[in-house]
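Per-residue structure
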Amino acid sequence: MVNINFVPDDYIQNNESRRTNLMYLILLVVIMMALGGSFITIKIRQRACATKEKLVNSRMTKMQEAIKQFDDLQVKKRAMMKTALTTAELLEPVPRSILLASLTNNLPAGVSLLKLNMIQKEPKPKPNSHAATISKYQATQVEKKVAQDKLSPEQLLETLIEIEGMAPSDLQVASYIECLSNSSLLDNVALVESKEFKIDDSTFRQFKLTAMLQKNAHLTKNDVETIRNKAEGSVWNF
């Protein structure tokens, strides 16, 4: 029996073409969805990486600021230490231990110190009969001279030394004053008071001296070693 197909060939070809196109379209949609999903995933990862990068940059900035602040503090600390050492050198050009050693080295036999006081103060202005008639020009010249000499307030301070002690007689007191007057550290050594003082049956002289530390007194290393070596034989150990 012969099969007769009444469906036209063009219709069959069109159906097959539509099926093929539909499959291609489905595959294209799947591929586009896959590409879209990959693109979204990449964007999400990029945003996460950007967020982490911003966080790391923020932490790095904070760490850099902290390091900078630490460096600034170290610089300020060194500057403060330098200023403190400079101020200490200006205020005390001669160490007190060396000054005390020098005072005890010059003690005559039988003389002992009871009290030592050091006072730093501003120098008193010298009386001037023409102070009331000084001109502004002269005052300006004085100020310029002080500025040229670069004298700081610390360098203008005077150091007054008050010494109290006991001696067998006024001869030892006079000898002590002479020794201090010949010292390269002191100036204007003067006797303020000398009175009789009795201990049991013995009579002593209780004296009080004043002296000024020389403004330009600066000891070398050899001077310090010499003073310390002399002080080794006394009751003071420096």
